[in-house]
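Lab notes, practical 5.
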Amino acid sequence: MGSNTAVLVVVGMELSARNRLDGTVQSIETDGIMAEVTIETTGGQTVTAVITTSSVERLGIAEGNEVNAVIKATEVMVENE
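Output from the prediction step:
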């Protein structure tokens, strides 16, 4: 699964989070109970969200859907090996 993690919501849901990136689902890769959802933002950047497979199904997320990547984090870590 990817290293850039975000929370994914379907467009139209009301949240208080301010860090929202509009985009289109480019791919969904499932592996057991987890799914990696890749979103291309309207700015041309890629964000990858790791969510449960059941959330993908429950939210009806599919390739081509317009979604928001909502990022809610208290810290960001950077490692240089």
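Observations recorded by the TA: The first strand starts at residue 7 and ends at 10. Residues 53-59 form the longest helix (7 residues).
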